[in-house]
Amino acid sequence: MDHFQYRDGRLHAEDVPLERIAEAVGTPFYAYSAATLTRHYRVFADAFSDLPATICYAVKANGNIAVIGTLARLGAGADVVSGGELKRALTAGVPANRIVFSGVGKTADEMAAALAAGVMQINVESEPELALLNRIAGERGVRAPVAVRINPDVDAGTHAKITTGLSENKFGVEWTRAHQVYADAAAMPAIEIVGVAVHIGSQITELTPFRDAYLRLRDLVAMLRADGHPIARLDLGGGLGIPYGDDGAPAPAPEDYAAVVRATVGDLGCDLILEPGRVLVGNAGVLVTRVLYMKEGATRGFAIVDAAMNDLLRPALYEAYHAIVPVREADGADEPAEFDVVGPVCETGDTFGTFRPLRGIGTGDLLAIRTAGAYAAVMASAYNARALVPEVMVNGDAFAVVRERIVVDDLLARESVPPWLAAAEDGG
Ligand code: LLP
To answer: Do 22 and 40 reside in the same domain of the chain?
Structure first.
């Protein structure tokens, strides 16, 4: 359930008509609903309330500090994958001892920053990374709290670009090598083994892959404990899928996911870390865009809108489906009509949806691209010299711009002409 609903034929974010935000900030823009974030966090947290679980929101899904801060105030920790995300989480008020630092390619500087902040856990994904972390922690005179991310070789059944738990993927240490890697880690003076981590992919809409991965994890914990390692914490990753509207697969409920966790690893006496991203924020955002032109093609009609693939990359990159709805509801008199909704970027991939039923829309109308709270604004680029659109958060009848529009002049201010070109221009 989300808080983007029609009232009197106008799509609202909570109590605010999206038209009013469009007037205030221009289009395109992202709008997030604080009530939806809150609801999704509570449903997820309630599902795990009888387990010793810390919910570390995966900041990569939406790194806006207003989003992180909303979740942090409800009790969420954070899962971060870069020094930048660490800074965002700390800035938004997440206590360092509720932050997990994950990621396959941490730099020495990022490790030092994580240790200086005092994060709860660093998830290590390779032996060379373990060796470097041992050195960096040793230099600082501290021990790094480490979980090794194990690749369980389980097919998450999701899009190939977002599956991570197969042996062919770059992530984690092969589970068959865990015995050796933990033995190496135990021998390193500045490494403190605290647990094991897994994460098998994203937008997973079946529970079986989770069950398979967690059962494998269970066996691994028994083996590692038999080897003498103190495994006190299991990081179960994120990945729970969500419905993307009419076309999407139904997604499991958090309580059914929690039941799988309970049944597979609930009795191991471990503290648990969960790293949900999409399931908390995905349905808490929309991208609002204005129709620039209606165009009749030979085989179909196009609605050319002012948002583009640089603003929301998911359809172009993963053929992802996002529902697209008019901000002003069609009235009964409008004829049924279908359009391809496309952006102005010079690529055919710049298509948000094909043959979408959008009765009665015309030039100047606003459309909302739904389920744009996760992996949307964070994946934006400035391609075609289109700078970054604003993000707005709504809370009841109030709204606030939580990231200003970044304009082309902001980008140009960071560019310069090299001296030899400048000299040529001066006639030199
Ligand atoms: N933990 C780790 C280690 C991860 O790599 C990820 C996501 C998560 C947690 C959160 O997963 P979630 O609960 O959000 O599924 N850009 C893609 C999704 C990439 C996911 C990357 N890792 C998309 O737009 O679908």
So the answer is: no
CA distance to 2, 57, 96, 235, 311, per residue, from 110 (Å): 36, 19, 14, 20, 28
Looking only at the bridges linking them, the beta strands covering 99-101 and 301-305 are unpaired
Atom of ligand 1 nearest to the CA of 81: 3
Residue of 54, 125, 202 to test ligand 1 pocket, by largest number of atoms within 8 Å of CB:
202
Clarify whether residues 164 and 202 are in a common domain.
Answer: yes
98 and 10, same structural domain?
A: no
11 and 140, same domain (yes or no): no
Nearest Cα to Cα of residue 133 among 46, 194, 75, 175: 194
The residues that bridge with 10 in the sheet, in sequence order, are 7, 328
Which residue numbers are catalytic?
Answer: 346
H-helix or E-strand spanning residue 423: helix 419-425
Is residue 421 a part of any domain in this protein?
no
For 63-103, how does the pLDDT look when each residue is reduced to its tens digit (9 = 90+)?
999 999 999 999 999 999 999 999 999 999 999 999 999 99
What span, in angstroms and rounded, lies between the C-alpha atoms of 18 and 343? 20
Is residue 424 domain-resident? Answer: no
Are 325 and 377 within one domain?
yes
In 3D, which of 389, 405, 410 has the Cα closest to residue 306?
389
Q: Is 275 in the pocket of ligand 1 (CB under 6 A)?
A: yes
Per the structure, the complete domain to which residue 196 belongs is given by 34-279
Q: Is the pTM of this model over 0.85?
A: yes
Asked if residue 418 is part of any domain, the answer here is no
